[in-house]
Amino acid sequence: EPGRCMASYQGKRKDSASSSDLRSDEEYSWIPWFCSLKGNEFFCQVEDSYVQDTFNLTGLDQLIPYYDNALDLILDIETRDELLTDDQQELLENDAETLFGLIHARFILTSRGLQRMLVKYREKNFGVCPNVLCRDQPVLPMGLSDNLNEESVKLYCPKCEDVYEPQKSRHEHIDGAFFGRTFPHLFFLTYPELKPSRLEKKYEPKVFGYKVHKNAHRISREAQEKAMKEKAKSKLLRR
Known about the structure:
Helix content: 40-55%
Radius of gyration: 26 Å
Number of strands: 5
Number of helices: 8
Structural class: mainly alpha
Strand content: 5-15%
Low-confidence stretches: 16-23
Shape: elongated
Order of helices and strands: HHHHHHEEEHEEH
Mean pLDDT: 87
């Protein structure tokens, strides 16, 4: 649950602050922590400098109720969150995740963002196409809509050029707007050498080695319906 994840982060920050071992602050910062969570493998780490540039965030304040507080949380800026009620704190934590997702959708369209997603693509962090004929072709995350709460994230295969549901249930909750419709296509325009040839071969169903005719199922269904009608008619005649 989002609230539970955020509570874990707040606890980790407190533990790190009281710990005597010397570790980098980045290890405990919000963005790398969020991206390291199980289920968030599709996200790349957005650079702090990108988030700090208000031009990159234009219009997002209209979509996020606790925008200022959520942005502070993402950037690890200390605020007086103790003034918030438990319900408000949970809303803030959810807003931070949503705000980061929307920022992420913009970042991955930049050269730096594309480079980071390229690394994940080459390592098959997004998985491979479930189509057997695509031979484990790596896929990219995308959204069928750029608007929040309309579609969950999907996976685009550049070989068969089709879209699939994620194969792991932990990715089903991710909003497709956190990646958007443009990303996979801009990715292959930026790295055209990675775009495989379109899959032309399709699976052909066969029975005893013979290809099933395209009208076979229609003809079989019509024959079945005709037999059922004749059977019903014979029952009436026997009465």
